[in-house]
Each structure stands twice: as structure tokens, then as C-alpha cells.
Design brief:
Number of strands: 0
Order of helices and strands: HH
Radius of gyration: 18 Å
Strand content: under 5%
Oligomer: single chain
Largest sheet: none
Helix content: over 70%
């Protein structure tokens, strides 16, 4: 099943191109918090576990 953003774009324009473009634009935006917030939280958790 295609992601919601692709189904929405396909329903509006009869083309997956817009949905694929928008999906490719959001992928780096999803990666950004993963590389910052999630990594920092995991590192903090590891440090707390090694102290105990």
C-alpha cells in the first residue's frame, strides 16, 4: 500500500510523481531528528546505565 501522501497526490493529479517528490523531500527531514535528538537520548541512556 503506498504511503498516504502518495495516495493523496495520485488521487488529485492521477500521477505518483508529485507524491514521490514530496516523499523524497520529507525523508531528509525525518533523518534530521534521528541523527540529533534520538542519538543524543540514546547516548545519555547509555551513560546512565554505565554509571549504575
Amino acid at each position: 500500500m503506498p504511503p498516504l501522501i502518495m495516495r493523496f497526490a495520485n488521487g488529485r493529479t492521477d500521477s505518483y510523481a508529485i507524491g514521490l517528490w514530496r516523499l523524497s523531500a520529507t525523508a531528509p527531514l525525518t533523518l534530521l531528528p534521528t541523527l540529533t535528538v534520538v542519538r543524543r537520548t540514546a547516548r545519555r541512556h547509555d551513560e546512565e546505565m554505565s554509571i549504575s
